[in-house]
Amino acid sequence: MSRLTSRRGALLACAALCVFAFPAAQARTFLKNGFDPPADRPATDAEAARFLTQATFGPTTAEIAKVRAMGYSAWIDQQMNQVAMTAARPHMEAVSAAMVAAGGTDTIGQNQRMSRWFHSAVTAPDQLRQRAAYALSQIFVIADTNGSISGEPIQMSEYWDLLARNAFGMYRTLLDEVSYNPSMGKFLSHFRNRKAATGREPDENYAREVMQLFSIGLYERNLDGSPLLSSGQPVPTYDQNTISNYAKVFTGFAYNNAGTNLFGGTNTYLPMSCVATEHDVTAKVVVGNTTIPAGQSCANDVRDGLNLLASHANVGPFIARQLIQRFTTSNPSPAYITRVAQKFNNNGDSERGDLAAVIKQVLLDTEARNNTPPATFGKVREPLLRLTAVLRAWPFQLPAATAYGEIRMGMTNPTGAYAQRPLGAATVFNFYEPDYQHPGPLADANQFAPEMQIINEGTTYSISNSLADYTFRYYVGMTNPPTDRPLIDVTALAALATPAAMVEDVNQRMFYGAMSSNTRTTLTNMLSFMNGATPSEKARSLLQIAAMSPEFATQR
């Protein structure tokens, strides 16, 4: 068979793979799902890999072995308490300093921030912390698409580190640090926000979003996330007057070393200070119709205003649902949301807002650890997480660091291919919204699918094309390999004796042992069609088609 015919067969196999419907996993009864505690130690590599798919940027063989040896809970505890944080800002400062020392024209930019993010996502040992920071970055959104911070890669790297530092801390502390962060201040315009004067009112942007997106949401909620109704209608959590009064709370913010000059100080990543003469000291009626008294300092106004938000009954279910959606499933049951919200309200030690306890509950909940989940459980895998999973599943040869210390990962602007960019959403509403329902069968079934908001014909093509770069086009052993990207090493996969053995290796590494029989047959047949191909071509084609498959694009 000619190589052209072999490739034609592979493409036909791909077409078949992209249209078949794979069967849903068998559902357990509600009682079984709701009350039987899950085993803490995975019984198989597949169970460990499924857990790591939820908790990290993708399973590795080493991490699978560790989870099997330690158990889920102990692995989480080690990640939270013993593994050092991989920081972004110090690395960015070092790269910038090297550029300055070189005396050339190169300057630090968002490309270097992207390289650092991808390298950390793929190689950092603190996987759960980095994954949690990624989840939080889609709730507490800032974006380099905003001109006020697009030229601030070091400042934005500090914001990422802020999220990572607080990922296992207290929600109230996180809310405080986010509010004082200069990147957030510029992004949502409470940086240099001034008290009212003739012809001028305080900017309301942050006041609105800190309520709508970062804490309580638009409507009062029950503990299970369902709307609290009055006369059959949802009850708003705040009104325009609340926004206007919170805008007064967030006045006077300036650079950390601004002193008494609102427009003074130097550009820095340090927490913002407050210029007293520009802070509104009038009484403020805020959430819950509570009055913050007149005459207080900026710090005390912010403290009181954020305390009221953080203690609001909505925060538990509001944050719980979104973290569940980022880690495990787009459509958590009311009981699942309730259990996570309860953990937010009380971690067992009468502490509220313990994010470590919340994330642990998200990952260890009986619904998350049910290895035969109902058909409604799971989520569309974020495009970027498809790439990181591939990069972690297989051996890759990383490029040497540049003269400045940057390790390039072949992806400086993932928005073009993946419709996502860490800290790079188009708006404060993230890449997609938690309540997005894709038109068609999902919407008809009242099912949410946030990630589908960025999936269309164009992005399906661009994602597949980029995944082909990482799985097929650029590989160890090629002639004139690029020096700005990882190269996949398929030596071990190509050496397997049969197509069935190759497909099973892919099944274990990429599908946590749950590949459907249809997918298995399609991939095996594809390899059989490629009689004229080299072992490397077969292995790389297998990875390319597997990475493009609808089954890999879903997380169960």
From TrEMBL:
InterPro entries xref list: DUF1800 (IPR014917)
Signal peptide (from-to): 1-27
Keyword Signal: yes
Keywords per UniProt: Signal
One Pfam short name: DUF1800
Official protein name in the record: Uncharacterized protein (DUF1800 family)
Lineage of source species: Bacteria, Pseudomonadati, Pseudomonadota, Gammaproteobacteria, Lysobacterales
